[in-house]
Amino acid sequence: MRFSRMIPVSGLAALVAAAVAFFPAAAPCAPEFLFLGSILEGPYAPTALAVTRDQIATLEPFLGQIDLYGPGGVITQRFPVSDQARDLEVLDTDRLVFIDPGNGTVLGVDRRDGRVSPFFGGAVRPVGLAAADGVLYVLDGAGPVIHVVDGVGRAQEVITLATPADGGFGGLGGLARNPVTGGFFLLDRTGVRILACDPQGNFLGAFCSFGTGFGQVSRAGEIACDREGWVYISDRYQGTVTVFGPDLLPAGVLRPETTDEGVLDLPAGMAIDDTGILHVASTEGAGILMYQVDKSGAGAPDLRARALSAEPGDDGGTWLLSATIDVPAAAQDPAADFELVAMPDSLTVLARADGVALVDPVIIDDRLVGRASWLPILDPEPATVYGWRCRARAGDEAGPWTALARIAAGVPAAVFDLEQNTPNPFNPRTSIAYRLLGDGAARLTIFDLKGRVVRTWDLGAGRAGPGLVVWDGQDGSGRTVSSGVYFYRLREAGRAMTRKMVLMK
Fold first, then answer.
1. Residues 352-397: pLDDT tens digits?
2. Three-state secondary-structure class, residue 406
3. Which fold has domain 414-505?
4. What number of other Cβ atoms are within 10 A of residue 119's Cβ?
5. Which among 306, 311, 279, 322 has a CA at the least distance from the CA of 420?
6. In angstroms, rounded to a whole number, what is the distance separating the alpha carbons of residues 159 and 199?
7. Do the two domains 3-294 and 301-411 of this chain adopt the same fold?
8. High-pLDDT (> 90) share of the chain, %
9. Per-residue model confidence as pLDDT tens digits over 176-190
10. Whose CA is closest to 264, among 243, 236, 292?
């Protein structure tokens, strides 16, 4: 494994005051990129990509096709598209969407039968796509506006974008949605900058600029935003990816080394899966490169909260909020703090709980891992979106808050769930938390990159509620497995969820 150290924050000017006030500030850190691997057999000149829990889709306009890669980097499906196709998003488990500039429409690909058909034609000049929770956001450069489209291609809302303070949008050519705030980032290719807007389309400020210095880009490729509000922009000329923190100040630059495992040559499309793994399409390098982005920093607190989940409360009106707490085994009085806030006004705390005790904690090497839950006292307003977060605590010392998770009143969360393993990356043990409906036999299976079964747990039948499995890095025969990326899949009564994890020795 090798690291490409990110550059610490410099004294670049901050955004306008409105933008800084809107976006939650990130804790100081010195993140690093950990190279996980690449797919070099199959890609030709990918210009865009999208990822799910266990598959990668690439757009190959020079070949006129979309390729779908399964575990092990093997192409499992191929769909014909126009050589003018651009952008690519995963809308749901069955559908991919992309832009066809030739006829000015958004087309959909049904992964079940391979059929390519019109999905949304309401945009005059579609120039960017973003998808979240089965909703598609289409940036229309002719407005400019953002069309909000449901899972079957019906327009639900049109967000009119307010004119930037300097009077122009430039040549818009990319869209990303901030899952923390619900706002948007627009790529201005002409001005080589990124415009930030709130969920209503109000202009908040611009960041990034043209050049070769820190926080600058020579030729913008695509933009992406991860679940914690970090923004990534690829630079096709410099062969780099520049990263901005949630405060929209430059945080670092990915400058990969040239090795036999791939080079980031003419980086184009990017995607970040729900485990935080950054996937970059290298057009000239003819490959897909994968990186784990470590934002913890050398001096970050060793008290962690993660794997947030929300379920309907007993009274049906509020939620049971839960998180996995991960602290040193010797920590005194481990607990969790919770906050519930108004969205998008993340500064207004509606309810709070401090020192919530852990339930059934387990020791994994030198770490103590347990679950903490809180039922806030609140009468939720119908159709209102709230945000909540959690942090780990050990006595008087508290760790950093998690990114805000969004939850809407009256929308129950699913109780069949597979959470991200903790810790991740890990060596050699990690815990995997899950929730079952209890209506059938359940099983948890670990696979390697080639799809081979590594380890299986029979979770029984008819057992509803949460559970926890600890994997010690060994296969079913007791042999220690090698470092690398693994998949783990939860099945129950025909349902399935899959996630990735990284064993790093």
1. 999 999 988 888 878 898 999 998 887 777 767 788 889 999 998 8
2. strand
3. Immunoglobulin-like (2.60.40)
4. 22
5. 306
6. 8
7. no
8. 32
9. 999 888 999 999 988
10. 236
To 10 degrees, the CA torsion angle through 84, 289, 88, 202?
-110
Length of the chain: 505
Would you state the structure tokens that stand for residue 67, as one six-digit string? Answer: 């390729």
The three state secondary structure string of 110-151 is: ECCCCCEEEEECCCCCEEEEEEECCEEEEEECCCCEEEEECC
264, 72, 223: which is closest to 139 by C-alpha?
223
- What is residue 400's three-state secondary structure? coil
Please answer whether residues 353 and 374 qualify as being in contact, where contact means their C-beta atoms are separated by less than 8 angstroms: yes
Residues 6+ apart with CB under 8 A from 228: 26, 180, 246, 295, 403
Angle of CA points 123, 125, 131, to nearest 5°: 60
Average pLDDT on 312-317 reads: 60
Q: In the chain, what are the domain boundaries?
A: 3-294, 301-411, 414-505
CB atoms within 10 A of CB 227: 16
Q: Of 298, 303, 366, which Cα lies nearest the Cα of 329?
A: 366
Would you call 401 helix, strand, or coil by DSSP? coil
- Using alpha carbons, select from 134, 135, 140, 126 the residue that is nearest to residue 156: 135
**Would you say 182 and 199 are in contact if contact means Cβ atoms under 8 Å apart?**
yes
pLDDT at 471 over 70: yes
CA distance 189 to 292: 27
Give the fold, CATH level 3, of 3-294. Neuraminidase (2.120.10)
d(CA 279, CA 37): 10
Cα–Cα distance between 184 and 202 in angstroms, integer?
10
Token pair for 295: 């934002």
Fold annotation for 301-411: Immunoglobulin-like (2.60.40)
Q: Rounded to the nearest 5°, which phi and psi values hold at 292? A: -90, 130
Phi, psi angle pair for 244, to nearest 5°:
-120, 140
pTM for the predicted model, two decimal places: 0.60
